[in-house]
């Protein structure tokens, strides 16, 4: 018996209750079991990435269509951003299906779902506030144009993207940091960089940066999550054969 | 003086179950079975023991017409696990 083994044997003899059922369960075994199980639990949670891909695609698509409208002078009969409301329907189905498929609930999931819920409410409130601001600003704009004979230098629309990008970055950054998922963490930071840049750029550039932010923050991380999810699923299936 | 190790937790499968449940909010029976590689019968017995001492809670209900057993750790279970780890640490110190 080596020195460490001897000390350990002495320690064991100091307690009567140490060896009760698993007489061959040493403290190293106990630590290994604890470590293994905690790691197994951590590795069990893989997001499908479908929700992230859906929103990344929708926001990028809407921004690019809006950009095309401004750039090429055509106008769709409806506001393309209304598509985001329709995207809520598949999102609800995706969330329900993913929750049903999960055999265990992580502590982080509960927290993150509330972060994204708060984000959704924040986006709705911001959209409402901006709509009211535009409605009130419009008569002032027209009056200024009539009196001065030129457009006012201040255009509210040039700043709206910054507010949205600020909000886009928040849940993305928190999710990336909580799950230690760097693509999303960097995606969140990218949204905030674009938030600063869009303060100084035209509406067209703002829309392009919004599309790029949606791709960087959600579409790319979503694709990577999907790949990791598929790999984990294949691995689990192989292990269970 | 070394702390006595909790005999309920000082069992391979029960320790694995509690270690797993400490990492999640709640887990299905099938999830625990899959992660611990235990047989359904043995796992049921060990879960019952953990429930008897109040370390875990077991809730049974139906999901899509199939019975579903959900397990979660209780505050007493968390406290027991913490004491167990502390006791282990005392054995590890030179």
* SSE arrangement of chain B, N to C: HEHHEEH
Cα(first) to Cα(last) distance of chain A is 40 Å
Rounded to an integer in angstroms, the radius of gyration calculated over CA atoms of chain A is: 27 Å
Instruction: State the CATH class of chain B.
Output: Mainly Alpha
The tally of beta strands of chain A, per DSSP, is 1
* Arithmetic mean pLDDT of chain B: 90
Give the overall shape of chain B, derived from the CA principal axes: elongated
Number of strands of chain B: 3
Helix-residue proportion of chain A:
over 70%
User: Sheet bearing the most strands of chain B, described?
Assistant: 3 strands, antiparallel
Provide an overview of this structure:
The complex is a heterodimer of chains A (241) and B (94). Chain A is built from eight helices and one strand. Chain A is mainly alpha-helical and 241 residues long. Chain A has one domain (49-103, 110-226). In chain A, helix 3 runs antiparallel to helix 4 (83-101). The longest helix of chain A is centred in the middle third of the chain and has 42 residues, at 107-148. The model of chain A is unreliable at 1-21 (pLDDT under 50). With 94 residues, chain B is an alpha+beta fold. Chain B has helices spanning 12-22, 29-36, 40-52, 75-92, and strands at 26-28, 56-63, 66-73. A three-stranded antiparallel beta sheet of chain B has the order 1-3-2. In chain B, a hairpin with a 2-residue loop joins strand 2 and strand 3 (66-73). The radius of gyration of chain B is 14 Å and the shape is elongated.
Keywords:
heterodimer; A: 241 residues; mainly alpha; 8 helices; 1% strand; elongated; disordered N terminus; B: 94 residues; alpha+beta; Arc Repressor Mutant, subunit A; three-stranded antiparallel β-sheet; 3 strands; 53% helix; 20% strand
